[in-house]
Amino acid sequence: MTEKQKIRSFHDLIVWQKSVQFSVDIYTVTKTFPKEERFGLISQIQRAAVSVPSNIAEGQARNTKGAFANHLNIALGSAAEIETQLAIALKIGYLENSDYNNLISDLTEITRMLYGLLRTLR
After folding, report:
1. CA–CA gap between residue 5 and residue 92 (Å, rounded)
2. Average model confidence (pLDDT) for the chain?
3. In this model, does residue 117 exceed pLDDT 70?
4. Please, what's the largest Cα pairwise distance for the chain?
5. Which 8-state DSSP code applies to residue 119?
6. Which residues of 63-78 are buried (b: 16+ CB within 10 A; e: fewer)?
């Protein structure tokens, strides 16, 4: 998307697109977690993952810079939660190193994009 192209909706935001795919990846990976974690770590990590694109969408749809910035900050908080939850899942043996590394790499990219978008709003 060039500078001259206007963002008409959150669908146009690459960070939203990437965070939706990341949420799908989280759901895929957590399917391998033990069933007794269904209401624990699985639920926590899935909710946090879904929160990222949801807050991007809600903030952009509110149509003010302040509201958008606030929701991007909430998305960043959810990203930090996910990073913590993935570290815990790795340490207790629910995640393979390769899955952890891939997810953290994607999450880092999303986080950088969120910070970049925040900078453009200021």
Report:
1. 46
2. 94
3. yes
4. 51
5. H
6. eeeeebbebbebbbeb
Residue in 65, 77, 71 with CA at minimum distance from that of residue 120: 65
Question: What would the DSSP string read from start to end of 13-80?
Answer: -HHHHHHHHHHHHHHHHHTTS-GGGTTTHHHHHHHHHHHHHHHHHHHHHTT-HHHHHHHHHHHHHHHH
pLDDT level of residue 58 (50, 70, 90 thresholds): very high
Q: Is the pLDDT of residue 60 over 60?
A: yes
Per-residue confidence band for 1, with pLDDT thresholds at 50, 70 and 90: very low
Contacts of 94 (CB under 8 A, 6+ apart): 32, 33, 34, 37, 41
For the full predicted model, state whether its pTM sits above 0.90: yes
Which of 15, 7, 9 is closest to 115 using CA atoms?
A: 15
Residues 6+ apart with CB under 8 A from 45: 26, 30, 82, 85, 86, 89
In the chain the domains, ranked by start, together with CATH numbers, are 11-121 (1.20.1440.60)
